[in-house]
Amino acid sequence: MDGEKELVLGNKQLVGFFFVVVALCGMFFALGYMIGRNANKVTVAGVDGGSSTTVATGQRTQDPEPPRETTVAEPPTAEPAVANGAPHTRPAQDVPTPERTAGAAPAPQGGPQLTVPEPGSTYLQVGALHRADAETLMKTLREQGYPTVLATSSKADFFRVLVGPYHQTAEVADTKAKLKTLGFADAFVLR
After folding, report:
1. Side-chain half-sphere exposure of 12, counting CA atoms within 13 A
2. Can you tell me the distance from the alpha carbon of 27 to that of 188, in angstroms, rounded to the nearest whole number?
3. What is the mean pLDDT of residues 34-62?
4. I need a labelling partner for 11 at 20 to 30 A (CA). Which of 4, 75, 116, 157 fits?
């Protein structure tokens, strides 16, 4: 019993030890958060602009189909052509209703046009942002090979950035997984 010593800690020492442990846990949590957050940036920087994309798993996949924009068409003003004495008829075109185009702001010169999503198609909404931010995000996604369109939002001054259109569920799931690896984990399906 001669060599044994008993360590006695008072309340102040116990509280101080507790705060040191909490500070260390907080520091390690912040370090892990920063490393995990920067892991997505490395994936984005590793994507090449060629005809195929390298994803985090190292597999090579084909780029999605090129973007198809659906714009609101103006009604035809030209007279129908007459050939062989019989007039050609055209199917009736949908005239945009005022409530569908009332929220659409005119596109600035040189900027992307607002589109109406194709009925029956599936899109992934990546975000709803102010016009300048939405155009920047749209440009970035197009550079990565994703078909993107800009659409109006139910909120004033916001525009939706949509990736698509897709007609098959497998395409939607694959694209959503790829967008998640690029840092767009909040992208959701819009029908």
Report:
1. 0
2. 33
3. 51
4. 4
Report how far residue 153's alpha carbon sits from residue 99's, in angstroms, rounded to the nearest whole number. 13
Give residue 107's pLDDT. 42
Beta bridge partners of 172: none
CA distance 104 to 108: 12
Q: Which amino acid is located at 108 in the chain?
A: P
Handedness of CA 117, 118, 120, 122 (dihedral sign): negative
Q: Average per-residue pLDDT in the chain?
A: 73
Tokens matching residue 133: 């931010």
Give the Å distances, CA to CA, from 152 to 24, 130, 173, 180, 183.
47, 10, 24, 23, 23
Cβ atoms of 91 and 174 within 8 Å: the answer is: no
Cα–Cα distance, 47 to 53 (Å, whole number): 6
Q: Specify the pLDDT at position 24.
A: 96
Q: Which residue has the tokens 């197009």?
A: 142
What does each C-alpha distance from 123 to 28, 154, 170, 190 come to in angstroms? 39, 17, 13, 5
Indicate the DSSP class of residue 114.
Answer: B
Judged against a pLDDT cut of 50, whether residue 102 lies above it is answered with no
Structure tokens at 175: 């694209």
- Is the model's pLDDT at 17 over the cut of 90? yes
